[in-house]
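Weekly structure sync, notes
Attendees: PL (lead), two postdocs, one rotation student
Agenda item 3: pending single-chain targets
PL asked that the sequence for the first pending target be pasted directly into the notes so everyone works from the same version. It is reproduced below exactly as submitted, 201 residues in total.
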Amino acid sequence: MDGLLVLADGTVFRGQGFGAKGTAIGEVVFNTGMSGYQEVITDPSYTGQLITFTYPELGNTGVNQEDLEADTPAVKAVLCRCLAPQPSNWRSSGTLEQWLEQHGVVGLKGIDTRAVVRQLRDGGAINGAVSTDGTSPAELLKQVLAAPSMAGQNLAERVSTTRAYRWSSPTAAAFDQRLQDQPADRYRVVAIDFGIKRAIL
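Predicted structure, written out during the meeting:
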């Protein structure tokens, strides 16, 4: 299916949709990492944003349950140059495309991500819309211009936990013999979760 990225200044990028079908509106941002896309997509600090990955290949290691920073994706949309059709990793439990569709995240591939990043770098933060449901560029631009800015929004309220919980998942100690030799109940730590990343825990 064909898809569009429409920026608030009227710029239109065309590509092919993947993941969930629909429209997502938010602040367009980018990430330059060469790996760790699953951590980025679930990172609470990207809540409500449309993330553009500059590294040209995405999805080559699939997805797994160990590399999540939160239970569900934080981003509204994922934009990339190329999407790997078949993951190759011993921990992979599925494809990135299937996982995004399962969680309702719109994806757009085949766009000129370098041009998007240059525009963001030169023009600063800007809202945009990613659509894979056939909505026209003119209609998407109207929706983008009507959307609120990220500035001043209480994003912590969206990503904070609603209840206390005990963290018992394996940490670095599971992979480091020196840490395994420490007494198990040496310390008790309390963390206030306003959108904490699992890697920090």
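Discussion points:
- The chain has one domain: 2-154.
- Residues 57 and 116 are 16 Å apart (CA to CA).
Action: rotation student to compare against the earlier draft before next sync.
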